[in-house]
Amino acid sequence: MKPRTMKYFFKEALKSMRRNGLMTLASISTVALSLFMLGVFLCGVINLNNMAASLENQVQLSVYLKDGLTTDQIMAVGRQVKAIPNLKHLEFVNKEQAMKEFKERLGDQQQLVNALGGINPLPNSYVLTFENPEDVKATAKLVSTFQGVESTHYGQDIIEELFRVTQIIRIGGIVLIGFLAAATLFIISNTIRLTVFARRKEIAIMKYVGATNWFIRWPFVIEGMLLGLTGAIIAVLCVGEFYHFITMEVSDSLAFFPLVPMFPFFYQLVGCLIGGGIIVGIIGSTISLKQYMKV
Amino acid sequence: MIEFKNVSKVYDNGSTALDNVCLTINDGEFVLICGHSGAGKSTLFKLLTHEVMPDSGTVIVDEFDVTNMKRSKIPKLRRKLGVVFQDFRLLPNKSVAENIAFALEVIEEKPQVIKEKVAHVLELVGLSDKANDLPEDLSGGEQQRVAVARAIVNRPTVLIADEPTGNLDPNTSKDIVDLFKHINNFGTTVIMVTHNMDIVTYLNKRVIELKDGRVLSDNMRGAEFNEA
User: Fold this and answer.
1) Which residues cross the membrane (chain A) (predicted)?
2) What are the distances in angstroms from CA A255 to CA A111, A247, A248, A260, B167?
3) Which candidate, A18, A66, B1, B94, has a CA 20 to 30 Å from the CA of A235?
4) Is the minimum CB–CB distance between B216 and chain A shorter than 8 Å?
5) B78 at interface of A, judged by CB pairs closer than 8 A
């Protein structure tokens, strides 16, 4: 394509955006709003994923031992546990250590410990972590059959619940994204339809004098692209501002909740939203052209 | 050369537009197509520009088989045809020169060439002094001359005109058909749809008469046709 022709296409696209000012504004706002919601959603999903992954890595299996075992017996259990494949780390926690950690966790509510009357009800235990956290369930079952093991405990229930929730959010997100994309496509194709209608005489003349189909289409496709791009840029700025605000708020009040740092993750988000905006714009304009311009 | 071989066309609403039409129009001819409304004149016109397709038969325009061509070739076909309408179809917000130049811009002609060609056709249709006027400032006859200029600026081999004098008074009509004659003298084939009998007599060219989608007569010249 010649640069002169490209210039002509852009000129025509901008001209018609100006001519249908209100519709242009409506399209850009719709794209911006849709992509903003999409962006916020993506931020949420990415953080939930991140949280799920970090929790997954923290999955521990606590193996509580029966009271009154001899050191030899305790070590025998330890040897058996060590033989488990896929074991990442093994740690022995004795009664006293467990009590110490418990006290630390209680903080200023030490009276609860005092109520025990100097008796330490906490058992000796082994704490296991795994290369592959999904194995924890099977391992827990196996370990409970070992002699000298009282019970096993792991946070698998919570983890499974969490994965279920993220799954729902992800599916819900896809559905929502679908709806938003459809609404955006509808609005953009309507805008382009108006433009096509406003220019139908020119189009007829272009057809009669032998302009190629693409020569006629390009200005509309560019218009759709510009609508999508402008909307996406607005959305990106808003999502950026929003995420920045949330990061600040959370780090102030919910410091234990680790948010994914804004960069470099935000660059990917920008790519997604701008790419999405442009694609939606192009598809939107192509749809209305197909209907309204048999060239 | 333009050929219609056994062309038939029935529209979706059941009306027969053309019924087994056979016609040959040689290069450089000036042909008038007459007939009442609904006789099939416009369909003939639209078949040439590939706006409608026949149900059967073949339409040939020079090297193009219009009834059997790739969509991508349609622009090439249309560049061979100059088209003039009854209602001029000028772009109201473009000047006379811009309206004519538009036909060249959209086929990506070089700016310098556009300038030269536009100046040349403006001179040919006698509107050099109105180059910068808007269509609304022109008379009907002048507007039609702009439309003719636009149709021929790309040097088409065939000029087709659908009732080009339909909106014009008798004197202006004569000016327009004189312009067509002038263009025809350069070797351009001219096909003109009309039911203005004065024009038919005045031009005294080959007349093809259509009725109910059939060729009723194709053996007379303007004056004898009018007497018959």
Assistant:
1) 21-48, 168-192, 266-289
2) 28, 10, 10, 13, 81
3) A18
4) no
5) yes
Interface check A212 vs B, CB under 8 A: yes
Q: Are A70 and A116 in contact (CB under 8 A)?
A: no
CB B11 within 8 A of CB B63: no
Question: Using a CB-CB distance cutoff of 8 angstroms, which residues of chain A are in contact with residue B106?
Answer: 206, 209-211, 215-216
Q: Is A214 on the interface with B (CB under 8 A)?
A: no
Residue B157 DSSP label: S
Please judge whether A205 and B71 are an interchain contact, meaning their C-beta atoms are less than 8 angstroms apart: no
* CATH topology for the B1-80+157-228 domain: Rossmann fold (3.40.50)
Residue A253 or B52, more confident: B52
pLDDT of residue A177: 76
A177 contacts: CB under 8 Å, gap ≥ 6: A38, A41
CB-nearest to B107 from A4, A8, A211 is A211
A18-74 pLDDT, tens per residue?
A: 887 888 898 898 889 888 988 888 888 788 777 777 777 777 888 899 888 888 888
Domain locations in chain A? 3-55+160-292, 60-154
| Section B95-105 average pLDDT | 93
Kindly report the CATH number that applies to the domain delimited by A60-154.
3.30.70.3040
